[in-house]
Amino acid sequence: MHCPFCRNADTRVVDSRVSDDGLSIRRRRQCPACGRRFSTTETASLNVIKRNGVVEPFSREKVISGVRKACQGRPVTDSDLAVLAQKVEEAIRATGASQVDANDIGLSILAPLRELDEVAYLRFASVYQAFDSLEDFEQAITSLRDDNQGQRRVRDEFEGEH
Question: Whole-model pTM?
């Protein structure tokens, strides 16, 4: 790490701390040449391989902007979208991969979006799962209904026991 003040190539780490979110490390460094101190932040890199083969860094903002279109006119807040993007990033990082296909990111958005808003989920799924017909929508809606009925049955049984 070069010193930002004198450009000396040798700096030493004085202190290291994990950030509050646990995704980065803050390091306090000191330059032996000029004696000045400075901080750096280190994160594990996560790159996205786009459909055209271009590789770029993962961006929560891109996740949010893509999902925001599906949530247009729905009761979803910016805070909800930020939490969803964080969940997606955590899920992708948990795989241990340093590179992920853009399509895999789209697919990893589906489950948390389904929990957040079913209409937005259907809109987003229609793009990422390439719905070609009304039957594709009908299957997705049937799946949502079946899941909701199953959840209701479990909840009713649980409440009946207590």
Answer: 0.69
